[in-house]
Fold:
Amino acid sequence: APACTALVLRLERRLASPPHAELTARDWSAALLEKRWKNLRKLAAGMDRRGPGGLHETRIAAKKLRYAADALAPLHGRRADAFLNALAALQDGLGQANDAQVALQLLRELRPVNAPLAFEAGLIAGVLAGESARHGEASAELWRRLAKTRAFWRGD
Structure:
């Protein structure tokens, strides 16, 4: 995909001219991943209290960390698998909650032309709201699992 190619080219450019000559690619990747991890931790800590907007922000942070972690994991060996799997599960859960919210918003923008359609739209809206809440709660549990998983880029 073009976005992936652009990311790889940006990474190559950064790695070819690191800010400090003694900085290794592994050290640089660890610093980048740690920055993304801290941002995700900050957003995930309160995601269940901030509603759909908080879930969406957390989903974007998880997505950014996942793309970086997937690209940089080979620098850190096989110990990345558990973290990547837990991160993928969180991103998927947050994505499902977001999908339900987007569908609910689109449904609210429709103008049913008669009472039976309005009734059906109301039923669907109830199901979507329930799905969004369910996936939001599941995402909170997925976050707790990820938070307990060892960050593969750390030396500990």
